[in-house]
Design brief:
This protein is of the alpha+beta class. Helices cover 41% and strands 22% of the residues. The chain has 6 helices and 8 strands; from the N terminus they run E-H-E-H-H-H-E-E-E-E-H-E-E-H. The strands form 2 sheets. It has a 6-stranded mixed beta sheet with strand order 1-2-6-5-4-3. It is elongated, with a radius of gyration of 25 Å.
C-alpha cells in the first residue's frame, strides 16, 4: 500500500514480503490502525514494532517472538538468558521518538549490534549506515557540480577576434517568474525545516552515537610488537 505522510519513502502496511525486496533504507513502515500517542513507553514502542505480519523490519524468528509465543509476553529477563536475534529499545523520548537496536545476543552480557531502527511520530525507518550516508552525499554533490559546470559552459562564447568571454544575457519574463517562484518555495521550505529542527537534531545525535558503537564493535586489533603476542579485543 503506497502513499502516506512522507512521500519520498515507500510506505508499506500490508506487504512486508514486498518491502524485504526493496532497499531497507528506502522503506517507511507505519501502522495506520494505531494512534501515535499510544507509544507512551519503551514497552509500547517495542510492541508496536514487533508485528511480524506487517512490519518488514521485524523478523519472526527473533527471540522476542519466540519468548512472546512461549511466555505470552516479551520478558526481558528470559531473552537476556537466551541466545539469538533480539530487538531492544535503546533510547526513548515518548511518545514521538524511539530507537531500537537489532543485535545478536551471545550471552547475558555480550551482544553484536546488527542494525538500528527509529520510530519517529509513528513511522519506522532503518537507520542508514556510514557507507550509505557517504555515497548518498557524494552522489548529491557530484550531481550539483555537473549542473553547475553545464550552466557555466553554456554561458561562455568564443570568437577568433575576442577569444573566450562570458555571455551577457538579459533574463526574460519567464526566467524572472521562475526566480520569484524559487524564492517563495525556498522560504516555505525554510519554515518547514524550522518546525522539524528539534526532532531532526535528536535523531542525528542518536545516529552519531550508534555509528560510534558500531565502529567500536568492528575495530581491528592493533599489530603486535616484535616478541609480543597479538592483542585480542575485548567483547
Amino acid at each position: 500500500e503506497a502513499g502516506g505522510r512522507h512521500s519520498p519513502r515507500l510506505v508499506l502496511a500490508l506487504s512486508p514480503m514486498a518491502a524485504k525486496k526493496q532497499n531497507p533504507l528506502h522503506v517507511q513502515w507505519y501502522d495506520f490502525t494505531r494512534p501515535v500517542d499510544t507509544l507512551e513507553s519503551e514497552q509500547a514502542a517495542l510492541a508496536y514494532f514487533a508485528q511480524p505480519d506487517v512490519n518488514p523490519f521485524y523478523e519472526r524468528n527473533s527471540l522476542n517472538e519466540r519468548v512472546r509465543q512461549q511466555a505470552g509476553m516479551m520478558d526481558p529477563a528470559i531473552m537476556r538468558q537466551s541466545v539469538g536475534l533480539e530487538y531492544e529499545v535503546v533510547q526513548s523520548q515518548p511518545p514521538h521518538l524511539h530507537v531500537l537496536r537489532k543485535h545478536y545476543r551471545n550471552s547475558p552480557s555480550d551482544i553484536t549490534p546488527m542494525a538500528y531502527y527509529y520510530i519517529a511520530r509513528g513511522s519506522a525507518y532503518q537507520c542508514p549506515d556510514v557507507s550509505s550516508m557517504f555515497m548518498s552525499r557524494l552522489s548529491t554533490t557530484l550531481h550539483h557540480l555537473n549542473e553547475a559546470f553545464g550552466k557555466a559552459t553554456g554561458a561562455v562564447t568564443f570568437s577568433p577576434a575576442r577569444g573566450h568571454e562570458w555571455a551577457q544575457r538579459t533574463p526574460t519574463r519567464d526566467q524572472e517568474a521562475l526566480e520569484q517562484k524559487f524564492r517563495a518555495d525556498t522560504a516555505g521550505s525554510r519554515r518547514d525545516h524550522t518546525r522539524e529542527t528539534a526532532l531532526s537534531a535528536q535523531v542525528h545525535n542518536i545516529l552519531g552515537g550508534m555509528e560510534a558503537e558500531l565502529a567500536s564493535n568492528h575495530k581491528r586489533p592493533a599489530p603486535a610488537l616484535p616478541g609480543q603476542p597479538p592483542k585480542v579485543p575485548r567483547q
